[in-house]
Amino acid sequence: MRLKMTILLGALIASAAGVALADNSGRIYGRVLLADGDELEGLIRWDKNEANWVDMLNGTKELSERDQRRARDEERTERRGEIRFFGIRIGESSDWSSSASSGIRFGHIRSVEAMGDDRALVTLKSGREVELTGSSTDLGSGMRDFVIEDNDGGEVELVWDDIEKIEFMAARTDQRSRFGDRLYGTLQTRRGETFTGFICWDIDELFTSDILDGEENNRSRKIPFDKIQAIERYSSSAARVYLTGGDEVILRGTNDVDDDNRGIVVSDPGFGDVIVSWGEFDRVDFSTPTKQIGYDDFDGGRPLQGTVYTDAGDRHTGTIRWDNDEEYTWEIIDGEYRDVEYDIELGAIKEIRRRGRSGAIVTVLDGREFQLRDSNDIDDSNKGIFITTSDGDEVVVDWEEFDRVVFDHK
User: pTM (2 decimals)?
Assistant: First the structure.
């Protein structure tokens, strides 16, 4: 009886302190080495909208000298065929760049080291190092927020200049968090597509303790997400909110619940992220994940391998460099279709099939297919698919002659 009372008392104390005792093994966890020499260790909330290993760290990476040289060669080749009239270039030309956008799921990362106001050295579990600059708010002085729930000192808010290095490691299943549970559920678009995974609302709210803001009958209302069962688009300027107690309310008047909403992100463990605009959003139903995706579920990436098929019937098998800059399974291809943006991890892709000049069908390992457009990853702005065969030869397949690629997953 005394043991039972002790357990009950502990649970009541934890509840009174607002501490969540759920399985947090899917949360980002690490040791932060500070510029002043101090160290902190605990669960991390990164830039307000990343907190789980399945979430993505976004930035811009520099292309290797090899890739830059190849891009410059292609630019010169294009310009040989240009037509000029009174010194003005007529027609299209491929403008090469020394950098490319990049994204990495946090689970692949061993450490992030600050290297200035907007640069970081990212070391993956494989040992590969990638230098990223802050093209988004994820890195550098533009980071919106960085919170670590230090095991000894409680919650600590940091800015980029405070940080020297973050070393990642697995969290315990009983790791406590005052933020509550990570939002999870199934989102449906107005066209009937569904996506299930970890939810980030308005590129901002992640946890059950976060607040949905709005106005009801000209009165301000703030509803914690742990009181919300579902949210449904009511109009371009309002949302219907279904509460766990059975009530329904119509909220309007803030960017949480109208067309100023910056997007609802679903981090799907099966392939990556989707961002759904308010105009395409229909409804989200919140639920509890059946399992957590932990740090040990990520391998740090490996070189892309597979077979590329051409329209002419040729096939080339070997190591692949996609669009002259993605060459590892941790890397991301992106695209858009019907107001839904996709970031898909290459390691989750079974096949990419060209669909005309300006799009492709991407099939992921669980069989789902996504039609993508409006990105140089999957249209005629693609800088080429490079295949290094087993005998060391390099073959380049241009988008116009590309048919499909089937990736190896061994």
Answer: 0.86
pLDDT of residue 174: 85
Place of tokens 């996504």: 370
3-state DSSP of the chain? CHHHHHHHHHHHHHHHCCCECCCCCCECEEEEEECCCCEEEEEEEECCCECECCCEEEEEEECCHHHHHHHHHHHHHHHHCCEEECCEEECCCCCCCCEEEEEEEHHHEEEEEECCCCEEEEEECCCCEEEEECCCCCCCCCCCCEEEEECCCEEEEECHHHEEEEEECCCCCCCCECCCCECEEEEEECCCCEEEEEEEECCCECECCCEEEEEECCEEEEEEHHHEEEEEEEECCEEEEEECCCCEEEEECCCCCCCCCCCEEEEECCCEEEEECCCCEEEEEECCCCCCCCHHHCCCCCECEEEEEECCCCEEEEEEEECCCECECCCEEEEEECCEEEEEEHHHEEEEEECCCCEEEEEECCCCEEEEECCCCCCCCCCCEEEECCCCCEEEECHHHEEEEEECCC
Residue numbers in the chain where pLDDT is lower than 70: 1-22, 63-99
Q: Could you report the per-residue pLDDT of 107-140, keeping only the tens digit for each?
A: 999 999 999 888 999 999 999 999 999 877 899 9
- Per the CB < 8 A criterion, the answer to whether 144 and 16 are in contact is no
Residue 92 CB partners (closer than 8 Å, separation 6+): none
CB atoms within 10 A of CB 390: 8
